[in-house]
Please model this.
Amino acid sequence: MTAKIIGVGSYLPERVLTNQDLEEMVDTSDDWIRTRTGILERRIIEADENVSDLAAKASLNAISDAGLKVSDIDLIILSTCSPEMILPSTACLVQHKIGAKTTPAFDVMAGCTGFIYALSVAAQFIETGTYRNILVIGADALSRHIDWQDRNTCVLFGDGAGAVVLGPDLNGFGILANYLASTGAGAGLLSIPGGASAAPAHADSFDKTENYLQMNGSEVFKFATRALPRAVKDVTRRANVDLSGIDYIIPHQANYRIIETAARKLNVDSDRIINNIERLGNTSTASIPIALDELYRSGRLKRGDLMILVGFGAGLTWGANLIKWADH
Ligand code: UT7
Model:
């Protein structure tokens, strides 16, 4: 038995922050942001919204696309880098917001690779027959952890949520292979060090800047351009599929140059690699399911298409899922 995608949905906050807006806020330029990242604009969560609101809306869209009711969902797994609180899990907040009653729910944290990890965890529950319908969400509001005076980071990130519903399949469709990896040795390259047990917000020594996302951009860039092709190659090997047979690659949307470099290394045409970074920026663990939802809604996906979802991010973590698309 395999786990196939039977519903897809996403949700984006309405507020748009353009490169021109950022020119008014920090010493940057539209030209620098475009040429170094490919980003033109991004969405930012409203003051009265929270990450569970984005996640709940994306989830309801995915459940409705699957033709299911909330009560049909047997398990909820949410990946995020910006949990609403340290306790309880954001998954539990979403469980309540979508109107589920006792459905088990938990968070997965694996940096921007979180959705890849969450999907592979969900697949195990379906393959073993433990659960039937699983909601898997990627949701982030990293704008809440950005220092809006730091041009190195504030131009990169946007907010949003994407979700899928997985269900069982007996005909060889769905998730055919997963590849997961991490190296904690790189933990310091991308982190939000404050506000948790190492540096609680109430401690006398608490430094508010520790609450902001901190990134060594060029080192993470180098890591990403190695990790992405490696994950793609590894997952194709695990599924025993040739890269030339892959119809679409949906990479984490962190920087257009990372995607281009990986495409070159893999010798894959860029029209097979999905890219929406210019409109949404880096939405962290939400970027892959949002891009998947956009591809699905474009009507380009056909039954039997092979796709690779591939992520990389804090941890450092990286990984990929290889999926045979089923009409649903
Ligand atoms: O989702 C998690 C994974 N995250 C990523 O994958 C992000 C990976 N890193 C990157 O995408 C790129 O490293 C960045 C987009 C963050 C930076 O691009 P870069 O080409 O690596 O630039 P840099 O950090 O080497 O900086 C080049 C110059 C510096 O000035 P000097 O020292 O050469 O005078 C920066 O101060 O660009 C400057 N700079 C800026 N200038 C205008 C940095 N940010 C900006 C900015 N506007 N926003």
Observations:
- The longest helix spans residues 217-239.
